[in-house]
Amino acid sequence: MSQRSSQAQAPTIWIAVHDLSRTGVPVLLVTLLQAISPQQRACVHVIAISGGPLLSELRSLCATVTVVEPNEHRSVSEVASLGLRTLGMASAGDLVRHTVWRAKLARRPKPDVLVVHGAGAWPVAEVVGSAVPVVLHLQELDTALDRSIPRNTQAAAFQRARAVIAVSGPVAALAQRRGAQGNKILTIPGCVQLLPQRATGDSTGLLNGSERWVLGAGTPGWRKGTDRLAAVAHELVRAKSSVQVGWLGGQPNGPDAAAVGRADPVTWIPEQADPWPLLSRADVFVLPSREDPLPLVALEAGVHRRAVVAMPTGGLPELFADGRGMVGSSQDLRWFVGAVQQILNSPALAGEMGERLHDYVRTHHDADVIAPAWFDVLSEHAQG
Amino acid sequence: MPRLLIDSVVHRVSTGPTVTFVGHDASRTGAPVMLCSLLRWLQGEGIGGVQLVLLSGGPLLDDYCAVAPTQVLDSRILAGSASLSTVSNSLGHLVALPSSVLGIGLRRVTESPILVANTLASLEMARLLAVRASTNTMSARLVCHVHELDGVAERVLPASRTNRRSLLDSVDRFVAASQAVAEMLLDRLGIAAQHVTIIEEFIEKPHPSLQAVAAARKQMSGEANRPVILNVGAMSHRKGPERFVDLMSTLADHPSSPRGVWLGGEPGSSVWLEMEHDLAGAGLEDSVLLLPNMDDSARYLAAADLVVSTAIEDPYPLAILEAGAAGKPVVGFESGGVGDMLRAVGHSELVLPIGDTLGMSAAIVKLLENPKSRGLVGSELADWVTTTHLVEHMAPALWKVVTG
Predict the structure, then answer these.
(1) What is the pTM for the complete model shown?
(2) d(Cα B114, Cα B19) in Å, to the nearest integer?
């Protein structure tokens, strides 16, 4: 078979993603694309509803990247669409949005399969013809899923999907509860690149040299439980500990923003392109999440041999079982704060946990093993 | 009480109202409830010449109509404009209908020389009415009664700095609902101190019947008569429902088996669903009761053992004043007026830094385990509220500021 005919038979894979921010869902996409072959990447066209800092990196990893809405503000058509919805004219709002998006996507080669990478990208499925097979890569739990796909349309969405890829067991169980057939669901866990560990240390100078730190990372808000950091910090102060509490990923917004700076004991660190030179300073890495399917930062903590204290949500109880970390049996704030203090008081325990987690991540979440399996699933569902 | 000069003017005017209050809605929330108290007081004092214009309706509408001529601006153009402004503000766009178009929906509003925006959220509409009154008849006075703090102010004021400055500069007098609000106006919104008067929030003394209180107690506490820790407020992140769940998780093992009750919110709303999610995650379904918005929160406050405020931003919460009037001890975060109230009665130890949930838990445990101390704090709060913060104490000063 000539190279030309081989290329002609390669499927065209559209991967839709909500945005290109440096957050879990888009970062996982970058990780997966980095770990497949250049020939496989050449089939991939990424459709992002809005842009973000991962745009240039993604452009180097696939055939094309199309951003349908500007990142810095909403387009006039989107404002019109939202305005129409607000006025009770949802159909007209949808029509405006779909027309503009279709026009933007018309120049791309027709897809053999649409992969909805995270439920937040489901609106792209609504503008792609119903004949195109859809694979839904689900990376949400209850609340996030309900906000991405209205509850009353979820069953239809799961019916439309030829396959549902879940990032953890609880996500797979949720998909089934919401209408996906069991034989369509497969679990492909989140993964990370097991790169040689970089030199530790804070090259940015944001964290002072001699202090001990409790650190976490992610987009601040209810879901990540960042309001709980203040509780940790105040308790450490009461215990006369000099350990500092910090969060990498920017300051909270919404109502919490007003509280930031008002005797706030938490150091809020801006998002970093490479957060681990900073985060590897953590004496304890915390995951205070209320809802988190399987945060990549938990796997990265394993790569960097950090001791982790986590609230029980999504795939975290399994990840941190058998002494690989500390995970609560319920969302119990007092337990959480106590666990942080226990690890701070026992560096040896922290070291053992970090090593165990490192070994587990290496054997269960290696992108070089998981990404090819992921791409095989996409290819299998492509037409033609 | 001494009559104000404006009262005689108001009584003499027969052609129309002298003061138009502009409210954002008729919900049973702080600012609308306090305006209703003020209007009822004006009616009781025989002061006429006021009217109320609302941007939208709500459950307080009948109460409003009973105390002042009230109209809801139900014009589709206005509703559309408000929605578009909200959307465009949230999106950082500057899409707004010109005032001439908006004016079409205002034709039914009788002009008056004094306009009072009851919140920052209704200031834009009050200014439109003031501009219209100034153009046609006289120079109208624009007063803005600010019940918001930074987070809400940021959301409801125009996103454009120029438009925001222009709107704030059009106000002749700001009434700040608390010291914290005044600090926001001066320090963060650039208002000159001479344009700001602080008048703390006030309430009408609640009088729930004994039967109503007993029924509320049974509903909250159950047959086992568990101590009730009550939080009253609209269920939004500003009021800290997620912190309330965390707080109750720290009290789950207390021997008295306290029952947490959150009063306020709409079942099915996004934050309500989040709270249900949090309660399930913490295993607290049997320890925390969620109650939707009620017409009469006073009976629940009177039936509680302790009232907490987990809000992270609350200028001067009426529910805490009502709790004080009912003689209930209060514990809260340093989120605005709660701290002022507790410090006023010498109990700063019951004010915790925002987010110090375990510190709040410890303060509550002390009160739970010491009924005498609970009673003492409650009676001190009751004395203070009923001698300083009832409508009859504060409304005359507010009316004086309104009328200049």
Answers:
(1) 0.89
(2) 5
